Amino acid sequence: MIFALIPLLTVFFCSFCAAQSSNYAPFAIALPAFSKECLYHDLLDANDALVVSYQVLTGGNFEIDFDITAPDGSTIVTEKQKKYSDFLLRSFGIGQYKFCFTNTHGTALKKVEVTLEMAKNEMSDDQTEKPEDLITNNAIEEIDRNLNKITKMMNYLRAREWRNMYTVQSTESRIVWLSILTMGIMAGISILQATIVHFMFKDRQRNYV
What we know:
alpha+beta; four-stranded antiparallel beta sheet; Protein ERP4; GOLD_dom_sf; signal; GOLD_dom; membrane
């Protein structure tokens, strides 16, 4: 019974560490064709840093336009025809930042997964800490970095799975419509041939009578 509980406890511990190591949750937005959606986030401290990442999951060629606007109205980042990207935003002033996504490439509805994560402030007074505390903190930070790497890799693989599945579904739909069109053309040609043969023999029979 005890050995049966070990995997459950391991999963619970990993989930708890992942939850504690990250203070963000990705969310998805839908971008219809030729539309623009903007998100807003406030930075209240000059030492704050924000990690911004996005990836297109479904829709056409998986390409969108993205730009970041600072509180003073200046454009910090402008990207064109991107499938995914990752930024560390800092030292651009205190206030409200605007993150805009534009779907101007293709006519398909696109699903975009966005992550806004407050970066940790690693400024600390290491001289006042004990050696054993430093070792423990370094080990915790290493685990945290590894968990973040695993999370980002899983998100990337999931995004690739979404794109591949969308491509498969789109290809299947095109094959079905192509098959229907081919069948319709073949039926039309057959009817046209039968009609031509019918009229040819009908006119010949009238001429000989």
